[in-house]
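Design job #97: recover the sequence.
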């Protein structure tokens, strides 16, 4: 319907130019909105108010001049001037159902648009350190990132999904040291586990695999391992100093075999993450290794570029990037005084590499606690003479789990947390995917486990999926009576659809393509969740107001054809969110 109105308004503007009321150079942008109140019609535009200065007349007079020049269209029943100069359009009832044919013809492609114009987008999300299983916090980033990628692809962008594997640095060394201590314990050595180690049961699994593969060939006596180490936290010492000393001792004793332990832990946990995400319906085109940046010299090259540009200086033995020159609150270390490169140094090289791969837009989905990291990364991009505005950082707030009115506690390092896998097994993938994206990503969310599992209208995903299953049930009932859906017959008799519930559904269906464009450009899949709830509500209201499987064949075919279109759009919207559309509930 908006397309029809836009065409008519363009013709009216052209006629205003011909009549000398508008300059030939005038090219006003058409703003056409759905009205909130049915009394104001179906669609409205503020075009008259935009043109009032050019025409030199009050907005209401300009509005009348536009209306006088609108071509006659059967789809438009009435046009009115409202308020200071809005033009309200009342569409003919039959025109409202033209969308049904469009939906059924385009099927899965209904809603697809070319807002993206083929621009290449890299969406990097989850990217959790491979130091343990994914927890429910990672799940929200996974659901959100995957839905954003789906939206962008539907909106005409060329999308690549990427997971950045942080397989270098101190946290990975802590993981390897934690694994080796568990391995030593399995080999019968009385080695105390570090307070700052990774304590989850999954570490035992990796240690057991090492024992099976290597026996006790990687073991050293407890006395040798612990000799001369500083006191750990349990003995009144510094847990950070202790874990660093333990890492150094591990590397010294194991020499090249340290890499065996390191790789065993990395591969086991990364494989678990990959399988977990795949079962969650989240897959990636690329798993990009941080170590590859180091090994290929890209980190050194990026630092060298910054040095050549005069953006690196030395202080107290460390190398600092002048990020404060680009709006960051202070300068940042890229190489520590001990020669080790920081995570920030890797991130500089990684984002430079992304642009070298000729992506037009870089989307990073980060936890909200990383918001302070954004200015320094953009600063590095600017210092490397790349466009910092190419980077869009989308922040995701943490999700709190509630059961029986009580909040569940979580602590990653201690191993006391709810994993994504546990959540999926508890409430199901569909509920998890939907609940994660039904709010804006930057808003904190409380995940009510009891609600997610309930079969009630209060559970939004149950309500939506039940709408789809209800349509399938109606179509099965018709088929049992020998009344299959005859789409062409139904479309030919849409003029018989006179109930308000039918018109409301048609209007909702027509809004879907515009919704896709708007949600994609705003990176807001929650708009799809809201829309699906509205569409489901419209379907349930229709179900309660009208009978579908009626004796009158033409009316029956029209109604069945309408709900087939609703079913298609429910499927399309749920697919964006990674949620199934079941035929039975």
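Job complete. Output follows.
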């Amino acid at each position: 319907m908006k397309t029809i109105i836009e065409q008519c308004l363009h013709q009216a503007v052209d006629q205003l130019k011909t009549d000398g009321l508008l300059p030939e150079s005038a090219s006003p942008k058409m703003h056409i909105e759905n009205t909130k109140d049915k009394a104001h019609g179906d669609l409205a535009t503020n075009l008259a108010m935009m043109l009032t200065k050019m025409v030199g007349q009050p907005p209401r007079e300009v509005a009348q001049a536009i209306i006088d020049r609108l071509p006659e269209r059967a789809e438009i029943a009435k046009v009115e001037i409202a308020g200071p100069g809005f033009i309200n359009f009342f569409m003919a009832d039959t025109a409202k159902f033209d969308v049904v044919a469009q939906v059924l013809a385009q099927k899965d492609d209904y809603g697809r648009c070319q807002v993206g114009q083929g621009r290449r987008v890299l969406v990097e999300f989850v990217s959790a350190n491979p130091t343990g299983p994914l927890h429910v916090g990672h799940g929200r980033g996974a659901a959100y990132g995957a839905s954003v990628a789906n939206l962008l692809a539907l909106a005409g962008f060329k999308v690549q999904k990427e997971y950045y594997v942080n397989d270098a640095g101190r946290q990975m060394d802590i993981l390897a040291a934690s694994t080796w201590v568990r391995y030593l314990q399995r080999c019968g050595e009385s080695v105390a586990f570090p307070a700052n180690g990774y304590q989850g049961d999954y570490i035992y699994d990796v240690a057991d695999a090492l024992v099976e593969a290597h026996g006790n060939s990687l073991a050293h006596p407890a006395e040798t391992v612990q000799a001369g180490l500083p006191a750990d936290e349990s003995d009144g010492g510094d847990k950070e100093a202790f874990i660093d000393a333990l890492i150094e001792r591990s590397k010294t004793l194991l020499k090249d075999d340290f890499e065996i332990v390191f790789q065993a832990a990395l591969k086991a946990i990364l494989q678990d993450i990959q399988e977990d995400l795949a079962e969650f319906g989240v897959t990636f085109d690329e798993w990009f290794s941080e170590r590859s940046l180091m090994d290929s010299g890209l980190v050194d090259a990026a630092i060298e570029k910054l040095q050549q540009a005069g953006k690196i200086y030395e202080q107290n033995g460390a190398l600092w990037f002048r990020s404060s020159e680009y709006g960051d609150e202070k300068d940042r270390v890229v190489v520590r005084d001990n020669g080790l490169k920081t995570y920030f140094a890797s991130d500089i090289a990684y984002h430079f590499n992304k642009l070298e791969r000729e992506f037009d837009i870089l989307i990073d989905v980060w936890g909200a606690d990383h918001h302070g990291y954004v200015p320094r990364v953009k600063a590095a991009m600017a210092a490397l003479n790349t466009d910092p505005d190419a980077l869009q950082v989308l922040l995701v707030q943490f999700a709190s789990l509630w059961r029986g009115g009580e909040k569940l506690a979580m602590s990653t390092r201690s191993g006391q947390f709810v994993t994504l896998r546990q959540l999926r097994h508890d409430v199901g993938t569909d509920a998890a995917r939907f609940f994660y994206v039904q709010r804006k990503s930057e808003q904190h969310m409380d995940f009510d486990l009891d609600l997610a599992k309930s079969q009630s209208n209060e559970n939004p995903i149950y309500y939506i999926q039940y709408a789809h299953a209800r349509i399938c049930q109606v179509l099965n009932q018709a088929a049992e009576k020998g009344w299959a859906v005859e789409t062409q017959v139904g479309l030919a008799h849409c003029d018989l659809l006179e109930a308000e519930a039918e018109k409301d559904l048609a209007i909702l269906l027509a809004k879907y393509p515009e919704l896709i464009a708007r949600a994609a450009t705003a990176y807001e899949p929650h708009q799809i969740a809201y829309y699906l709830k509205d569409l489901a509500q419209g379907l349930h209201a229709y179900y309660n107001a009208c009978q579908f499987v009626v004796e009158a064949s033409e009316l029956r075919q029209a109604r069945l054809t309408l709900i087939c279109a609703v079913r298609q759009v429910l499927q399309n919207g749920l697919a964006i969110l990674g949620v199934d559309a079941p035929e039975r509930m």
